[in-house]
Amino acid sequence: MSQFFTAILIIILGGSISLVLARQVRLMRIIAVFLLSAGCFWGLFNALTNLIQSGSDTASFTYLNVFSLTFQMDGLSSFFLVAIFAVSLFAAIYSFHYLEDSQNPLRTAVHYFFFSILIASMALVVTAANMITFMLSWEIMSLSSFFLVIYNHHSAENRKAGFLYFVFSHVGAMFIFAAFGIAYGYSGNFGFGAMASLPDTAKMLIFIFTFIGFGSKAGVFPFHVWLPYAHPAAPSHISAVMSGVMIKTGIYGIIRIYALLDFHTPVCGNILIIAGAVSGVLGVVYALGQHDIKRLLAYHSVENIGIILMGLGIGMTGVSSGNPLMAILGFSGGLLHVLNHSIFKSLLFMGAGMVVHKTGTRSIDALGGLIKNMKITGTTFIIGSLAICGLPPFNGFVSEFFIYIGGFKGVALDKSAFVMSILAIISLAIIGGLALACFTKVVGVVFQGEPRTKAAENVDEKGSSMLVSMVILAAACIVIGIFPRIFIHLSLNAVSALGLGYARVPLAPFERITGNITFGATIFLGVLLLVMAIRFLAYRGKSISRSGTWGCGFTQPTVRMQYTGSSYAASILELFSPVAPLEEKHLKIKGRFPVKTQYQSHVNDIADRHLNRLIVNPVLSLFDKLRWIQHGDIHLYIGYILLAIVLLLFFI
Amino acid sequence: MMHPVDTILSLVLLSVLFSFGSSRLPGLILVVGFQGIVASIVPFFIGHGMSAGGVIFTFVTLAVRGIIIPMSIYWVIKKVAIRREVEPIIGYHASIFCGLGLIVAATFISRQLNIPTISDYTLLFPAAIALLVSGMFLLMARRNAIAMVLGYIMMENGIYLIGTTFSVRARHIVEFGILLDVLAGVMIMAIILQNIKQTFDDVDTALLRTLKD
Q1: Interface pTM, i.e. ipTM
Q2: Domain containing A398: what range?
Q3: Are A531 and A625 within one domain?
Q4: How many structural domains comprise chain A?
Q5: Report field, pTM of the whole predicted structure over 0.90
Q6: Residue A163: burial class (beta carbons within 10 Å; 0-12, 13-18, 19+)
Q7: Which of the residues A279, A388, A397, B46 could staple to A306 if both were Cys, CB 3.0 to 4.6 A apart?
Q8: Does one domain contain both A495 and A622?
Q9: Does B170 reach chain A within 8 Å, measured CB to CB?
Q10: Taking residues A292-309, what's their average pLDDT?
Q11: Which residues contact A296 (CB under 8 A, 6 or more apart)?
Q12: Are residues A294 and A375 in the same domain?
């Protein structure tokens, strides 16, 4: 594992040096980005080789003579490491030009420091092999990402987002602590290995507690409330890393604990499928109603976490009902979706970051026609959108296809497994359709049409490092979509590390599926090229005139005649109004020639609302009543301390 | 026959009562300085094979605790026109009564804790706890900021006394840590004091209450 630790050290070195060099901004950015990407590249290379050889490696350090910090790198860890290092690599490169006109060099330096800590701690989380190591890395990860969320801490909104994230990540960590406490209470051992020998009730409790704890990091409904606040607040490459890989550490935790517990009841699979279906469908519904492009992408993370959970749930159902093929299809589909989502989601966040960077607004309805001036950003964003909708020949399709097939294998099973499989299949279909609607909205309103405001006019796309990262990630979407074979093998290697006892799974069905996907994608590309060629031939020699989009023959068209995102989504949102109540505000139109009117709409997140009603408000009112304790008199404060000491001395 | 350590420590216990009853800052400073000196020389009488380094170290502690800190505080109140009264929240008689109760409670607690290494010296642990808690008491019951600083130093003296008994081997490290603690604490308090004085033109800590939002 020494190579792995070298990579971590290089990354942290990059972050630390940036603190020292804070005065020379340009030099600092060059060195920090170089070291971060070098470390990530080395880590990526190392994790890939380890994953391909399906090797397993451990390392152990003793800390303060009491705790041993143990690390293990097996297939599952390597798989997540590949995603972590790959996304961080491109995010680091992207940040070079993204932070170019940062006003405050010290803040940039601090940002690079915490960025490096975040990458390192994520890598350590997925390699930790005992409870102490895990919690240590987990907390470092939560804290460093908190500092990254409040990068723009001058805005009160961002501070609030940071606080919300802080609360959620620590309440989640408390649940994980509780689960580990139960495990330690039974086994008296901090190692992960002892979890398999616990009694069944303890296993069930641990599974549920860790599910809540990790779910709050992963953004599972209803613990996703922090996501749509934190992602828009952070700089775009940080959103890419957080949404692309950091929330996946929650998924890693769930699947790792499942493997460690070795607990194969149908309940686990049912919990995951139901939670996945709810998060998936509601995530995309809320995404449809958003006006802020980064908030919208954040809700899509909730949706994709739902898809991943359904994949894992199908896998667990397959295990509990003794259907190896279904289990492996579900697990490998879910894991591959982890990788795929990390690629296309970071691509989309980078694209959104470019848009926000150049136009200065995150409001979808203020943009328009950007693809005319931002060709690369627009094209890569469209590729990412198609991938996230799960359309062939892009990578999102491959993993969702595997989950579908796993679900269809489950239809042949009996009662609850049957119901769950059907539920998963139907929700996947609903999610796919709604995601497509949502991304036609984003792409159509932001990139197509005509600029709606001054901000969207005369933009350019400069910043080679940003463009390069986006192009490479978009290329990865296509490559995985067309040649999924090798990537399926990687996720199969990761699944075999779960220790489910399926050592020799017949590879033939997987080969057949991936072969068919490649065949289909090739035909698709062939038809596409053919159509393009025919179009080229048919239009050759004819004069082509260009006019404004949605001109529709008006002599005096204005940009306000265009469809807006809100109106596009309104009809779909109406269908879901019980779970996504739409709040509309508009002035009443008076007279025959109304002068000026305005319209505002806001989709309420029911989780947000009910958490406020049921938890936040009671807690606040309780502490309001205890406010008298905080009276400001220093002598009574010392009196409290004295009282505490005396009580401790007497009773302990 | 009484051990010399116990004889000295009985003086410390008396000084606690005296400090609770003194109404003027100079007297309080004197008492705290006395406690510092006594606490510092206790290791000589316990005598865990004093090395040359140990002797020097004890003298340094004595100088800092017993002379330098009290002198500098005395110098401060002389230079900056601070009212000499300690301004009690709990009156002097009530304080002395509390002090008596405190000493009784400290003796009771030290019986309960029952630490074997120091059972030879009957008064060591009670005196240490009494110093600690009475320092705390001064912090709580006096409004004058200088009196509070003195209470803090008294508390540190108590901690030092416990430290001398606990760790025979690593004593210097512990003592050095405590000494640094005292210095840092006194310095921080001096800065705060200056700010209080600047803001309110007085060192009455009860005025801090007005800062509450």
Answers
A1: 0.70
A2: 284-535
A3: no
A4: 2
A5: no
A6: middle
A7: A279
A8: no
A9: no
A10: 93
A11: A287, A290, A364, A438, A442
A12: yes
